[in-house]
Amino acid sequence: MANSIDLSVLAARLRARRTELGLTQEALAERAEVNQSTVSLLERGEQTPTLTSVIALTKSLDVSLDWLLGMSDDVKHAGGDQGLDEEERQTLAILRSVDRPLRSALIELLRMVVAFKRL
């Protein structure tokens, strides 16, 4: 069928991008607000994603829908990473690689450091 999703492409790209970002399946699931079992099944090519889950995954992985579904070879990062320098990208990658509670704690720590430096 011409309009069907190639689950093997989706699986490979999902796993590759998650690994590139240093995320576990659990961390990606939390970030995308899907079940960890969904991420696992998708990475094994054993489940067709719902529209809601594939959109959440593209946002969480910062990739285009076309790329994740294998319709394009251009990742076309979906987020606002354009214009960031390398240190800013590294900082963002670190924040994205941890769970929400730790991310919040790191952001608060950065705020305190910046406030202290201004004294």
What layout of secondary structure does this protein have?
Layout: H1 7-20, H2 25-32, H3 36-43, H4 51-61, H5 65-68, H6 86-97, H7 100-118
Helix pairs in contact: 2-3, 2-4
How would you portray this structure in words?
The protein is mostly helical. Helix content is 64%, strand content 0%. The protein is built from seven helices and no strands. The chain has helices at 7-20, 25-32, 36-43, 51-61, 65-68, 86-97, 100-118. Helix 2 (25-32) crosses helix 3 (36-43). The longest helix is centred in the C-terminal third of the chain and has 19 residues, at 100-118. The mean pLDDT is 86.
State the gist of this model.
Helix content is 64%, strand content 0%. It has seven helices and no strands.
Tally of extended strands?
0
Strand content: under 5%
Nearest-angstrom radius of gyration?
Answer: 16 Å
Structural class of the secondary elements? mainly alpha
State mean pLDDT (0 to 100 scale).
86
- The separation of the N and C termini measures 64 Å
List the total number of helices: 7
**Shape estimate:** elongated
* Major sheet summary line: none
Short key terms for the protein model shown above:
119 residues, mainly alpha
